[in-house]
Design goal:
Blueprint (H helix, E strand, L loop, with lengths): L8 H13 L4 H31 L11 H5 L3
Length: 75
């Protein structure tokens, strides 16, 4: 898909130089950024769903805490 953006010429020139410094074209740098931005949103939704699931889970420890000494005790 092609998109059109309105960006100041100086910003485009600086962004192009920054992209070239990483061995990418400006187009590739923008594409990578948009993919990262979209992926981050998906990851945030997954994390939020997991946290909500954990909060609603009956699998609580009821105040019990792990004891390091007991954990490493050998029989």
């Amino acid at each position: 898909m092609n998109i059109t953006l309105a960006v100041d010429q100086s910003v485009v020139e600086q962004a192009r130089k920054a992209a070239q410094a990483t061995g990418k074209s400006l187009n590739q740098a923008v594409r990578d950024y948009l993919e990262q931005l979209a992926g981050t949103d998906q990851n945030a939704l997954r994390v939020e769903a997991f946290v909500e699931s954990a909060r609603n889970s009956p699998g609580r420890l009821g105040g019990w805490k792990f004891d390091r000494e007991l954990l490493h005790e050998r029989s």
